Amino acid sequence: MTGPDFGRLRDIRKVGDWPPGSLLGGLGEAAKDGFLALGRPRQLAAGETLFAEGDRSTDVFLLLDACVKITMANEWGRTALLGLRVCGDLAGEFAALDGRPRAVTAAAAGHCLVRVIPQDDFLGFLRRCPEAASAVQRTGRAGPRPADGRHAEFGTLPALRRLARVLVELAGHGTDVPEGLMIDVDLTRAELAALVGAGEPTVHRALDVLRRGGILGTDARRIVVHDVRRLRGLAGLGGRLWEYEVPA
């Protein structure tokens, strides 16, 4: 996968192809254009950190062409995956809003194109644009600031369940299609494997298990979830826990 091209920003703004569950996807044109005019563009390589837990920085990141993993260290020193943020979302807004140290770490899951917005510009825009201010309050793809260390130890779960949790999170940005729910996040298999925390062969086998079970369908870059309820059950997020074994 090649790195994002700054020239794509013009195409993205023209098409307005933001996932419907994202911050930008829910805004009117004026508020959307106002957000896109803030800050400066920046490219990040896969694995590069936007900000780290404990940082005193207050910049906000508007994700234009990106998938970002939000993690937090628990009390045992292990890393818990709290959520994903993708194109059209913000990352880092909590520190800008309350001035406290970063509560989580945000890292690029692949090559990313973002806009870096200084705190003063971000807060000033929210004061001028009530629609944007309300949307920021409603959204927050990693959830509210963690109040304690009680988070699922993502790394201790079986690979298939980790994959299911990632896919459930990504499906929040999906689009209804005749076959089910198409995940609108452009991820290579390598990037998906990085999010799951497993090798590509393991993720490939896990996807094959889900395909054979009728839960989803895939092609080179496209994933369509046929049965969200069963996927959530497999992820341990409600419903029956469907048990599958990933071949070694």
Can you describe this structure?
There is one protein chain. The protein is of the alpha+beta class and 248 residues long. The chain folds into two domains: 131 residues, Jelly Rolls (Sandwich), CATH 2.60.120.10; 79 residues, Orthogonal Bundle (Arc Repressor Mutant, subunit A). The protein is 33% helix and 22% strand. It has a four-stranded antiparallel β-sheet with strand order 1-8-3-6. A four-stranded antiparallel β-sheet has the order 2-7-4-5. A four-stranded antiparallel β-sheet has the order 9-10-12-11. Strand 4 and strand 5 form a beta hairpin. The longest helix is centred in the middle third of the chain and has 13 residues. The chain starts with 7 loop residues before the first helix and ends in a 13-residue tail after the last helix. The N terminus and C terminus are likely disordered.
Q: Please report the first level of CATH classification, the CATH class of the largest domain.
A: Mainly Beta
Beta strand %: 15-25%
The total tally of domains equals 2
Round the mean pLDDT to the nearest integer and report it: 80
Strand order of the largest sheet: 1-8-3-6
CATH superfamily of the largest domain: Jelly Rolls
First-residue to last-residue Cα separation: 28 Å
Fraction of residues in helix? 25-40%
Total number of helices:
9
Q: What's the story with the biggest beta sheet?
A: 4 strands, antiparallel
CATH architecture identity of the largest domain? Sandwich
| Regions with little confidence, pLDDT below 50 for 5+ residues | 1-16, 144-152, 239-248
Write down the secondary-structure element order.
HHEEEEEEHEEHHHEEHHEEH
In CATH, the topology of the largest domain is named: Jelly Rolls
Domain HTH crp-type: 157-229
GO cellular component, one term: cytosol
Protein name: Crp/Fnr family transcriptional regulator
Domain Cyclic nucleotide-binding: 23-131
